């Protein structure tokens, strides 16, 4: 025994380590086996789709697949004057072939983002395209003079590289000018900066309201006797048992012009005519706070439950006014709960789509609404993915900042 | 009751007819009258639910008396909120603020009192020096051992020089050795700083070690307030006799009374002399109380006025002494405590022995 543990006997010690490893191996295998199904599931249904979605935001679309030769030769072109004759020839043949493969539609859609007349130009050209030609350059310019302008080819060139930043730029109201410089888009087509700002303001507002309403409630739950607090806890969790759509619809009924809220206010004589409580920002706040409040209360409650009431008593016995004791001694100990609750509510609120779409007005739609719009209505996956990516990046950035702040404040010794 | 040795000092705290009920049905504290002199170390001792902690909480101001008054000197305390009482308090689990360093914890009462920063810093440094934790000033409570946390809690309760220090079972969470060491440390602090301390515990050894006087609580009533030695030697009733130290009991009847002494009959037809407890007279039922170390065995029992034969059940070896459990008429579990050197090694369980004791080692107390 003693010789195995003797540090002066390295051989024996190595032996001991090997035996330990062998003994631990089975346990490790078991742990891996237990986690593996979930890990695999997550990779397949979560990590891979999100990864490919993120790639979509910089993917330049179908020109490279449908017209590989055109794309390759245009990438070598310096953009001066017109491309070489070989480029014209490659383009004409691939344009003709694209009709058979069905790639024409996607190329037309992609080029339309550059200039809205492109699809028509392609169709016109295809109709007039002869079987053979000795000089494709002349033939094409003959069909439509646009082929004789450098700008037409520069637009196709922009769609040629495999990756593009146009979607990401467009998501923050930027674009590349004719000379490739990044510039802001025209004032009347600026949209997304305001949408992002609005998304952050709504999510932040909902989080603050939830904190203001949830903190006293959690405090009450944590200090009441177990029987009463369990009953109240069921009431807090009750909304989870109802579908989100039903709850949102219920708010519309409650808050509409002749709904219960307005009728009560008017019966009490507080207002003379119905207030506009729904299909605007007020309705969005009502419905979102209602839905997200439990996510604030639960982490706060679990942290507060663990704080002994003797801390406040100690502070009071040391001469602090009960309010000061609460603020200086109790509240700092709830920081981890406040952090968990606010970050949970904020991140969930950032992604809200259905609720603002139903109870908000046109000026209350958040980023997710536009993601859904691009995915479902216009089939522009690049824009949908870019908006989603920017939202993800902003969220991660805010989370990092927040994490830093909270960690610095909350260095409670273990 | 010998309460006269405190008359010289001014009374600091006075409970006058204090009552407390939580549910409006039963009284947790019934008619409490207690005077605590300045500089005194008074322990409230009792089993859980006896009302001792409620008394401390009323003194601290966290509970209001249902009836009666509490005075600090001439001032009536009932309506003074706890943060204005200027009492230091040490809690059962220390209640050190986990998000503050040791230094910030100790500075907290000075901050609430608006002390200038440099003076506060000096005082904190002084008291850290006293409790020998200077190098731990920047640590958080969670990084300290139990004994160190205990010292910080003490320092925090003492740093603002309160006129009274309250301690609510402060040593309960420590292991035995550390607890005994801290008992002496607190006792020495009490002596050197001239503190007035009200200490709550359910550990009678702790109470005897530290206190000037001990108030034994049971069922919301103080059973006896006295010095530790008087409590042990002259318990006022059978509850105190049973609660303080080890005790053998024999149920019987007082036969005749002669001044402070009496004769009592117990078992089948045995009698013993005893000191008469308060409120007893001839013909009344009594519970006789005898400390195990006053019971002598065989040779040592020779010549003692009260002797009887008993059968030995078992011996329990405890290093410096043996506990001999034996059966005698009226008590099957009678214990004698014998020094190892005085013990006859030939004795075996099942043997008969002779037990003996002096009249003055027996108390005839109430039979409840």
Automatic annotation (TrEMBL), chain A:
Main localization, broad class: membrane
UniProt-annotated location(s): Cell membrane
Keyword terms: Cell membrane, Membrane, Transmembrane, Transmembrane helix, Transport
Keyword Iron: no
Stored InterPro entries: MetI-like, MetI-like_sf
GO cellular component assignments: plasma membrane
Family: Belongs to the binding-protein-dependent transport system permease family. CysTW subfamily.
Protein name: Putative spermidine/putrescine transport system permease protein
Species the sequence originates in: Halomonas shengliensis
From TrEMBL, chain B:
Gene Ontology CC, one term: ATP-binding cassette (ABC) transporter complex
Enzyme Commission number: 7.6.2.11
NCBIfam families with a match to the protein in the record: potA
Domain ABC transporter span(s) in chain numbering: 13-244
Signal sequence annotation: none
Protein species of origin: Halomonas shengliensis
Similarity comment: Belongs to the ABC transporter superfamily. Spermidine/putrescine importer (TC 3.A.1.11.1) family.
Biological role stated in the UniProt entry: Part of the ABC transporter complex PotABCD involved in spermidine/putrescine import. Responsible for energy coupling to the transport system.
Lineage: Bacteria, Pseudomonadati, Pseudomonadota, Gammaproteobacteria, Oceanospirillales
A Pfam entry, by short name: ABC_tran
Keyword flag Glycoprotein: no
Domain of life of the source: Bacteria
GO molecular function, a single term: ATP binding
Catalysed reactions, as listed in the record: ATP + H2O + polyamine-[polyamine-binding protein]Side 1 = ADP + phosphate + polyamineSide 2 + [polyamine-binding protein]Side 1
Protein name: Spermidine/putrescine import ATP-binding protein PotA
SUPFAM superfamilies: MOP-like, P-loop containing nucleoside triphosphate hydrolases
Keyword Ubl conjugation tagged: no
Subunit structure as annotated in this protein's UniProt entry: The complex is composed of two ATP-binding proteins (PotA), two transmembrane proteins (PotB and PotC) and a solute-binding protein (PotD).
Keywords linked to the UniProt accession: ATP-binding, Cell membrane, Membrane, Nucleotide-binding, Translocase, Transport
